[in-house]
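note to self: dont lose this again. the chain is below, predicted strucutre after it. 202 aa total, dont forget to put it in the shared folder this time
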Amino acid sequence: MILIGLTGGIGSGKSTVAALLSELGAFVIDGDRVAREMQQPGSVALKEIGERFDGVICADGSLDRARLAAIVFADAAELADLNRIMLPKIHAEIERRIDEHRPSGDVVVLDLPLLAENPRSDLDGTVVVDVPEDVAVQRLVSARGMSESDARARIARQASREERRMIANRIIDNSGSAEDLRKAVDEVWSWMRSLQNDGGAR
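---
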């Protein structure tokens, strides 16, 4: 198994890159998807979130993600509390999924938004999807309907571009066209496959 970290700031297009890598043959473990799966009605995580944050559980028992996001991205202490609830559970489930693939020859991609903030020592390489902040803001406003101030606040809560780039073995510039992105992903996929022959790029 080759274990690759994939990260990028909000609005960078990291999820698009993950989807392209999956099409090429990578097994992708999506940290955000793991989190959503663990926040289903009746889960331990959702119960703890509901006890800590007022008004974030809908009448049908599901999580009001927009309300929770509005709370935690406006206050670093609130975000820290959410992370204390969720991160250990997410980490345990991710490790379980990695362990399932250790005997394989797969390229396993860990799609983790907070990889720069929470580095791992067991990766064979790290890929960072990078865009200028103004490009990310524009995408968040147009595609997700955020206000510019909300978009910039969320970006400010994450690691800086420089911090992410420092951990990268490969950087994908996603400020161009869809064709440019696919070409860059193809090149990175070739690099990932080459690691299977030389033992990684730690």
